Amino acid sequence: MSTAPVNPASVSSSTSASDAETLRRGRILSSKLYFDVPLTKVPIIYSSSYDIAFLGMEKLHPFDSSKWGRICRFLILDGALEKNHIVEPLEASKDDLLVVHSESYLNSLKTSLNVAVIIEVPPVALLPNCLVQQKVLYPFRKQVGGTILAAKLAKERGWAINVGGGFHHCSAGKGGGFCAYADISLCIHYAFIRLNISRVMIIDLDAHQGNGHELDFSNDRRVYILDMYNPGIYPSDFEARRYIDQKVEVVSGTTTNEYLTKLDEALKVAGRMFDPELVVYNAGTDILDGDPLGRLKISPEGVTSRDEKVFRFAREKKIPLIMLTSGGYMKSSAKVIADSIVNLSRKCLIDTGSSHSRG
Ligand SMILES: [Zn+2]
């Protein structure tokens, strides 16, 4: 192994695996994303720059691209959260992103056409890249910073919610399905090094298969993946399916009771098979009845019980848990997510410092 200082600019395809690991470690240790959060703050992470809205482009997309801000506004209106208790993350820098992504993948995002394909908004291809960086990729990089910080906060407080993130279709070398950066893979690599953790469980309950993290941790025994998804919709990634430790397929039209019964069973199996030190919960709400992409029929109350089950699973085992909001961009999604967070607080599974959790 080389003992010379590693210069990122000189890295070539001939870099050995151990040099790459040394470089990754160096980047993680020098990152600014893990900053100390005062105890006056609640481990709910959000920045107003998460929300994507510009030139009316957001109206061309079937997504509610300001759901993240709306979730927080509902929580504040409900009295569940005080605005100045929210944690604002830093933007993931290029060096942070290089922990998982290749230089060539990051360079590909400098072409607006590539970003347009990833986020599925064709007119974005026509915009100058500086605008795409500022209005689309910067919000995503803030959300990535939030997911990475969430693991540190969860280790300290037992739980953390990033009101964003969960870009589970993006892997080290490829974006897609509205996911430009692999925040889950990044978060886990940071946790390995900075939190001295060696066993992570991903519970991916978004309606879509989480092919990004599955490809990234394909042969990594430190990560156990429970993925419950509709096999009849995007991304139909059969290679990535081989890397799921516990695959639970829920076909189009699956209703609330059937879904929750399958989840109970899946959590029992996961608890027997693996003893994690961190749970990464990808809590997409595209399982909701009426979601045009997810095609499942889960009620809003079903989403609340789903989230409660996962939080109880982690709480009973005393495992730190991070929740990411992931997919689900119907107008109703933000309220459903906020209601579920309020329920977690009422059930004392989280403490948001509000009257709900004190009462
Ligand atoms: Zn999804």
UniProtKB/TrEMBL annotation:
Keywords: Chromatin regulator, Hydrolase, Nucleus, Repressor, Transcription, Transcription regulation. Its EC number is 3.5.1.98. GO terms for biological process: epigenetic regulation of gene expression. GO terms for cellular component: histone deacetylase complex. Gene3D superfamilies: Histone deacetylase domain. GO terms for molecular function: histone deacetylase activity; histone deacetylase activity, hydrolytic mechanism. It is found in: Nucleus. Residues 61-343 form the Histone deacetylase domain. It comes from the Eukaryota. It holds the Pfam family Hist_deacetyl. It is an enzyme of class 3 (hydrolase). Its cofactor is Zn(2+). It catalyses: N(6)-acetyl-L-lysyl-[histone] + H2O = L-lysyl-[histone] + acetate. InterPro entries: HDAC_classIV, HDACs, His_deacetylse_dom, His_deacetylse_dom_sf, Ureohydrolase_dom_sf. Responsible for the deacetylation of lysine residues on the N-terminal part of the core histones (H2A, H2B, H3 and H4). Histone deacetylation gives a tag for epigenetic repression and plays an important role in transcriptional regulation, cell cycle progression and developmental events. Histone deacetylases act via the formation of large multiprotein complexes. PANTHER family: HISTONE DEACETYLASE 11, HISTONE DEACETYLASE HDAC1-RELATED. This is histone deacetylase.
